[in-house]
TrEMBL record, chain A:
Recorded GO MF terms: clathrin adaptor activity
Subunit structure, as described in the record: Adaptor protein complex 1 (AP-1) is a heterotetramer composed of two large adaptins (gamma-type subunit AP1G1 and beta-type subunit AP1B1), a medium adaptin (mu-type subunit AP1M1 or AP1M2) and a small adaptin (sigma-type subunit AP1S1 or AP1S2 or AP1S3). Binds to MUC1.
Compartments reported by the entry: Cytoplasmic vesicle membrane; Golgi apparatus; Membrane, Clathrin-coated pit
GO biological process: intracellular protein transport
Organism from which the protein derives: Pongo abelii
Family indicated by similarity: Belongs to the adaptor complexes small subunit family.
This protein's name: AP complex subunit sigma
Gene name of this polypeptide: AP1S2
GO cellular component: AP-1 adaptor complex; clathrin-coated pit
Residue span(s) of domain AP complex mu/sigma subunit: 1-140
CDD domains, alphabetized: AP1_sigma
Protein topology in the membrane: Peripheral membrane protein
Domain of life: Eukaryota
UniProtKB/TrEMBL annotation, chain B:
Domain of life according to the entry: Eukaryota
Subcellular location: Cytoplasmic vesicle membrane; Endomembrane system; Golgi apparatus
Protein name: AP-1 complex subunit gamma
Database matches in Pfam families: Adaptin_N, Alpha_adaptinC2
Annotated TM spans: none
Gene Ontology process terms (BP): intracellular protein transport; vesicle-mediated transport
Source organism: Pongo abelii (Sumatran orangutan)
Chief place where the protein resides: membrane
GO cellular component: AP-1 adaptor complex
UniProt KW keywords: Cytoplasmic vesicle, Golgi apparatus, Membrane, Protein transport, Transport
InterPro entries: Adaptor_Complx_Large_Subunit, AP1_complex_gsu, ARM-like, ARM-type_fold, Clathrin/coatomer_adapt-like_N, Clathrin_a/b/g-adaptin_app_Ig, Clathrin_app_Ig-like_sf, GAE_dom
Keyword ATP-binding: no
Membrane topology: Peripheral membrane protein
Domain GAE: start-end pairs: 630-745
């Protein structure tokens, strides 16, 4: 995966994870163009589109668009599963997640993503393990004096 | 008095409360000023909160570069809260372009080795997200150590960090290749997944690594088999499919290892068949695995039966109600249509159904695939479908559809008439979207199909009468009417209903085209030329009428200017003889240089060389009305080493300005003549049209000659000069000959 963007139906960015090195200016340009392209899609259209030399996989959950850019040899259908798994993790963590949760707790959204994907690849396929890791990290944040058992 | 800094969530609240963009900007600028001050003062307690706020406004698009150094400080702190935000900041604000990024290398090194797992996790995550080549080189030893540490949590991250490092510094492959064998024995899904990703990366970068890892194919097959046959596992299953992420990754590696390698392909054959048949396809997860399986089957050296199975799976995908599945099916079938053509052909009806998709990205793929599936046996049926599609397809697909149809028609047309009909239909339906050469192609096609002249001109006349807005159609129709107007007026043609058209109607139609505001200048040129040609083909008394119909120059308004332009064009054209665009214009233009541009000189024509007989052939004078002229004898114009060129002449009685020359090339030598091309040029006062030759080869010892028809129009009875250029291969030499033929018209 080259990058993942989360944005609202008004085109406001809620999360941006870049796995390739690009300048701030380039990132802004890509974001702007891609957001426009995806928002212009009609509801009944398929979740895949070709944009520049990348494949874009996107899915709307309530008021949020989850949009991934993958490479030519990547499997589009499994990318849809990646997006879905991420949404499930957010949902479990926040309890029935909505856009506001992600706005007000954007750092947590990043932390959760970073336990699921690493360097653009899937690192953990067990939902349980991802959530346990976040829990441990949150505990460590709150009470640093406590000694932690190894996560697994 | 110290003003407590805003909490992150309060700031977010305030920003969202802003009613206008300007208000938002104000709030943010004010807060950023506070944050800057706080950074300057070096407050360690709230630093993480200040940075978090800064990261939020950064996401909204505001500058945050002054937070970069704060990331470093936070990362170096011993508090986990600080590290968490600091590393996040590093990933968002720092990248390899900034020199500052190298400064975190040391902190990362420390964090990697200090043993608290969440901290190691942060460090590895950051390294794999924004680690530059230098950082990777520096930290490779640390990451290597972590690969075989006890904790799976850290190991799985270390493995994927290694993947990133190899991408940045390919030489590090030698460091990370050895541990893979051992890692492959792990049972932890995260570690397995990371390892397979790592092996994939290594194999993609180095053929040596690829050969090395072929030996793990049996092991991979075993892992996948276990996954597939194991029952449901709450932890890793999605919709009844065991860990689809891991399955897909294994299948992808198998693809790379099995490609171009018989033995490996054979080892995985049974397993692939098993996965292809047993995977639950009711939900996307299963289909994702099935899709990857199909890609692998098609890419390795799989058994024929397995390949057919894979194509059939794609065919089933085409019928799936989920349009995402249909999309990947169409894309994959398009990739396979060349290599597995007959297997894909079996699904042609379903593909054609997909033309009716409402989603343009699907119908586009269906169009590409449909065009690729056209062959000589299905061309009529396919064209019907494609023509129907052309009528209703979205505008951005029109051009591709039109040119696709025309190309397929050219390759597979069963009859010339069908071909002409097809092109006509495309021009009528999507005329504005066809490529420029469509007009030239159609005129050449019609010109070469002598038996269909009457049919073509009639159909085109009807089409033109109905609609004069589609420019390519109008151009072809005008050309055709000009060329074959006599056939149009003659009245009978058995292939379509008899049509009574008189001269007035034809001329009126051409005039309508000339005056229409929709007609492009080129189109007007075609119409004018047609009128000129008709003036020579139709009998005398209409000449005055034609000239009368040209609009007079008037002095008022823009309409008058247009008319003035048109009459000027007409005047210019009649002074210099008409020059229509000929299908073989490019050949003609090349040779015009050879003619030295002397279009008027008739006094002392140079003798013909090397023909023995007379250079001049006397032709009988030709009146306008149609008494039959004396026939012109055949003329041998060229001979060299047994290769001869003869001209024979026909003067059609109804058309005194037209001369048909049949050029015949014969070969009485002992060697074949190959690559024979005859090119011709005439002075500007004449028009020449070359039809396609019967071939390019004249076998030796009187083998089948090549014939080619030249049509010369000479409305002004100018002296006939024909310059010929022959090129061919004979006796292993390439020959080029250039010479002129003069035919003087008697009685001038």
């Amino acid at each position: 995966m080259q990058f993942m963007l989360l944005f609202s139906r008004q085109g406001k960015l809620r999360l941006q994870k870049w796995y390739v090195p690009l300048s701030d200016k380039e990132k802004k340009k890509i974001t702007r163009e891609l957001v426009q392209t995806v928002l212009a899609r009609k509801p009944k259209m398929c979740s895949f589109l070709e944009w520049r030399d990348l494949k874009i996989v996107y899915k709307r959950y309530a008021s949020l668009y989850f949009c991934c850019a993958i490479e030519d040899q990547d499997n589009e259908l499994i990318t849809l599963e990646i997006i879905h798994r991420y949404v499930e993790l957010l949902d479990k963590y926040f309890g029935s997640v909505c856009e506001l949760d992600i706005i007000f707790n954007f750092e947590k959204a990043y932390f959760i993503l970073d336990e699921f994907l690493l360097g653009g690849e899937v690192q953990e396929t067990s939902k349980k393990n991802v959530l346990k890791a976040i829990e441990q990290a949150d505990l460590l944040q709150e009470s640093p004096k406590k000694t932690l058992s190894p996560i697994f | 008095m110290v003003v407590p800094s805003l909490k992150l969530q309060d700031l977010i609240e305030e920003i969202r409360g802003a009613k206008t963009q300007a208000q938002e900007r104000e709030v943010i600028q004010k807060e950023c000023a506070h944050i800057r001050a706080s950074f300057r003062d070096g407050d360690p307690v709230h630093r993480h909160r200040q940075l978090a706020k800064l990261l939020y406004v950064h996401m909204l698009g505001y500058p945050a570069h002054f937070g970069q150094m704060e990331c470093l400080k936070l990362i170096a702190s011993s508090r986990f809260t600080d590290k968490r935000v600091g590393y996040l900041g590093a990933m968002l604000l720092l990248d390899e372009r900034h020199d500052a990024h190298l400064l975190i290398t040391n902190s990362i090194k420390n964090d990697l080795s200090q043993g608290i797992q969440p901290v190691q996790g942060l460090a590895l995550c950051t390294l794999s997200t924004m680690g530059s080549a230098e950082m990777c080189r520096d930290l490779a030893p640390e990451v290597e150590k972590l690969l075989l540490q006890p904790s799976p949590y850290v190991r799985k991250k270390a493995i994927l960090t290694a993947v990133h490092m190899i991408r940045k510094v390919p030489e590090l492959s030698s460091v990370f290749l050895p541990p893979c064998a051992q890692l492959l024995h792990e049972r932890h899904h995260g570690i397995l997944l990371g390892t397979i990703t790592l092996i994939t990366e290594l194999c993609e970068r180095s053929p040596a690594a690829l050969r090395h890892f072929r030996k793990v194919v049996p092991q991979l097959v075993q892992i996948l088999r276990t996954l597939v046959t194991t029952g449901y596992s709450t932890e890793h299953s999605i919709s009844g499919v065991s860990d689809p992420f891991l399955q897909v990754q294994i299948l992808r590696l198998l693809r790379i290892l099995g490609r171009n390698h018989e033995d490996s392909s054979e080892t995985m054959n049974d397993l692939l068949a098993q996965v292809a048949t047993n995977t639950d396809t009711s939900r996307n997860a299963g289909n994702a695995v099935l899709f990857e399986t199909v890609l692998t089957i098609m890419d390795i050296r799989s058994a024929a039966g397995l390949r057919v199975l894979a194509v059939n799976i794609l065919g089933r995908f085409l019928l799936n109600s989920d349009r995402n599945i249909r999309y990947v099916a169409l894309t994959s079938l398009l990739r396979l249509v060349q290599s597995d053509h007959s297997a894909v052909q079996r699904h042609r009806p379903t593909v054609v159904e997909c033309l009716r998709e409402t989603d343009a990205s699907l119908s586009r793929r269906a169009l590409e695939l449909s065009l690729a599936l056209v062959n000589s046996s299905n061309v009529r049926a396919m064209m019907q479908e494609l023509q129907a599609f052309l009528e209703s397809c979205p505008p951005d697909l029109r051009a591709d559809c039109a040119s696709g149809i025309l190309l397929a028609a050219e390759r597979f047309a069963p009859t010339k008439r069908w071909h002409i009909d097809t092109i006509l239909h495309v021009l009528t339906t999507a005329g504005t979207h066809v490529r420029d050469d469509a007009v030239a192609n159609l005129t050449q096609l019609i010109g070469g199909a002598q038996e269909l002249h009457a049919y073509s001109v009639r159909r085109l006349y009807n089409a033109l009468a109905e609609n004069i807005s589609q420019q390519p159609l109008v151009q072809v129709a005008a050309w055709c009417i000009g060329e074959y107007g006599d056939l149009l007026l003659a009245g009978n043609c058995e292939e379509i209903e008899p049509l009574q058209v008189d001269e007035e109607e034809v001329l009126a139609l051409l005039e309508k085209v000339l005056q229409s505001h929709m007609s492009l200048p080129a189109t007007r040129g075609y119409a004018l030329t047609a009128l000129m040609k008709l003036s020579t083909r139709l009998c005398g008394d209409n000449k005055a009428a034609i000239l009368e119909k040209m609009p007079l120059v008037e002095r008022d308004g823009p309409q008058a200017d247009e008319e003035a332009k048109e009459s000027k064009e007409a005047a210019q054209l009649s002074e210099a003889a008409p020059v229509p665009t000929e299908p073989q214009a490019s050949q003609l233009l090349d040779l015009l240089d050879l003619l030295d541009g002397t279009s008027g000189d008739v006094q002392h024509p140079p003798p013909l060389d090397p023909s023995p007989g007379g250079a001049l052939v006397h032709l009988l004078d030709l009146p306008c009305a149609p008494p039959s002229p004396a026939p012109i004898p055949d003329l041998k114009v060229f001979e060299r080493e047994g290769v001869q060129l003869n001209l024979s002449f026909i003067r059609p009685p109804e058309n005194p300005a037209l001369l048909l020359i049949t050029v015949t090339a014969t070969n009485f030598s002992e060697g074949d003549v190959t690559h024979f091309i005859c090119q011709a040029a005439v002075p500007k006062s004449l028009q020449l049209q070359l039809q396609a030759p019967s071939g390019n080869t004249v076998p030796a010892r009187g083998g089948l000659p090549i014939t080619q028809l030249f049509r010369i129009l000479n409305p002004n009875k100018a002296p006939l000069r024909l310059k010929l250029r022959l090129t061919y291969n004979h006796f292993h030499q390439s020959v080029q000959e250039i010479f002129e033929v003069h035919l003087q018209v008697k009685g001038q």
